Amino acid sequence: MLEVFKAIKEKHLEAKKIIDGATAEAEKIKQKAAQQGLSVYEETYKAILSQVDQKAIDVKSKIAEEAERELEKLLSNAEERAKEIEKKAEKNIEKAVNAVLNMVLQ
Amino acid sequence: MMESTRVITEMILQEAQKSAEDIIQEAQKSAEHTLEKQRQLGVQRANELAQSLLKKAQREAEVDKLRSMANTKIRTNWVILSKKEKLIANVLEEAKNKLRTLTESKEYIPILEKLITEAGIILGGKELEVLLNERDSTLSLKLDKLAREISEKTEFETKLRLSKEKPKVIGGAMVRTTNGKVIMDNTFDDILGRREKDLRSKIAKILF
User: Fold this and answer.
1) Residue among A88, A89, A93 whose CB faces B94 most closely
2) What CATH code would you report for B98-207?
3) What is the DSSP code string of chain B?
4) pTM for the full model?
5) Residues B140-165 pLDDT 10s
6) B91, A53: Cβ pair inside 8 Å?
7) Does B30 contact A30 at a Cβ distance shorter than 8 Å?
C-alpha cells in the first residue's frame, strides 16, 4: 500500500514538473510576444506612414500639375487679351491722336 | 494491485501533459493576440496621423497653388497694363510728332497767336514778354494786333515784346510779366504735361 502511495506521489511530482515547465515556457512565449509586439507596432506604423508620405507626395504633385495647367491657361488668356487689346487699339490710334490734338489745340 | 497503480499514475501524467499542452496553446494564442493587437494599434495610430499629414500636404499644396495663381495674375495684369501704357505712350508720341509737323505748316501761326492771346488775357494784359522757341521766334507774328486784342479783353493797355530767351519746346508760347513774377505757359509741351491725366484717360477710352 505504501509503495502505491509512493508511486502516485512520484508521478504527482513529475506531473507538477511538467506543468511548471509548461507554465515557464508559456511565460517565455508571452514575454517574447510582448517584445515582438513593440516591433510589430513600429514596423506597421512606419510602413503605413511611408505609404502616407508617398500619398502626400502624390497629392502635392497632382495639385502642382493642376496649378501648372491653370497657370498656363491664365498666361494664355492674358496673351490673347493683350493681342485683342493691341488689335482694337491699332484701329483707333488715329482717332486717339486726333483727340489729343483737339484737347491741346482747343 | 500493481496494474491499477500503473493506470492511476499514467492518468496523472497524461493529465499533466494535457494541461501543459493547454497552457502552451493558451500562451501561443495570447501571443498571437498581443501581436495582432499591437499591429492594429500601429495601424490605428498611423491612420490617425495619416489623415492630418495628408490634410497638411493638401493644404500646403493648395496654398502654393493659390500663391502661384495670385503671382501670375499680378504678372499678367502687369503685362496687360504695360501693353496699354505702351499704346498710350505711342499715341502721345504720335501726337507730339503731329504737333511738330503742325508747327511747320501755315495753320500754325493762327494757333500760336491764339495761344499767346489767351495767355496774355489770363495774365491780365499790361507789359508782357513772349517766349518762343528758336524756330517760332523767326515767324512774322502780329504781336501789336495780339496786344490790342488782349487790351480789349482785359481793359488794360497791353504791350507784347518777344523775349530773347528761347525755350526748347515743340511749339506754343510762354507769356510772362516783364518783371518775370508771373508766367503763363501755353507751350504744347506744358499743355500736354498739364493735361496728361485727362489725355491718358481720353486715349484709354478711345483705344480700349
Assistant:
1) A93
2) 3.30.2320.30
3) -HHHHHHHHHHHHHHHHHHHHHHHHHHHHHHHHHHHHHHHHHHHHHHHHHHHHHHHHHHHHHHHHHHHHHHHHHHHHHHHHHHHHHHHHHHHHHHHHHHHHHHTSTTHHHHHHHHHHHHHHHHTSSEEEEE--TTGGGS---HHHHHHHHHHHHSS--EEEE-S-----SSEEEEEETTSS-EEEEEHHHHHHHTHHHHHHHHHHHH-
4) 0.73
5) 899 999 999 999 999 999 999 999 99
6) no
7) yes
